[in-house]
Amino acid sequence: MNRRSTGDLTQALMDTADLNEYLSENDALLLHDGVAELLNDLCMRKRLAKASLAREAGMSEVYLHQIISGRRRPSRDRVLCLCVAMGATLDEAQALLRQCGCAALYPKDRRDAIILYGLLHRHSLHQVNDLLFEHNEKTLS
To answer: Is the pTM for the entire model greater than 0.90?
Structure first.
């Protein structure tokens, strides 16, 4: 898949006179899936059972099912718990945050930088929370 930065896509949108052409040319790069599809895809690719994911993320299976079914909208921290628990890559985490309507992780924000560090270094949720606590930041769970 051709990878283009958000800046590249924004520039292409500004430069185009034809929205349909832009959408057609960049279809593979645009988000289409809902939260359920994205979570299911990530679980399948990472070979994670939803029960295991819920346990590792510190939430009930019922709550996770409600998120997947669209009956609950998770907070940003809950989405981050899921990302850490599933060992999401930075791109996967940012995509899931966007799909859930949450702000992306921002490395200039102290708390976000700590969470990013935990994701990039494949820390567990417990380890990320320890780092947040150690640096006087609000923990994820």
So the answer is: no
Domain 32-134 has CATH 1.10.260.40: yes
Q: Which value, in Å, is the radius of gyration of the alpha carbons in the chain?
A: 17
Which parts of the chain sit beneath pLDDT 70? 1-3, 28-33
Tell me: the pLDDT tens digits for 7-22?
888 888 899 898 888 8
Give residue limits of the domains in the chain. Answer: 32-134
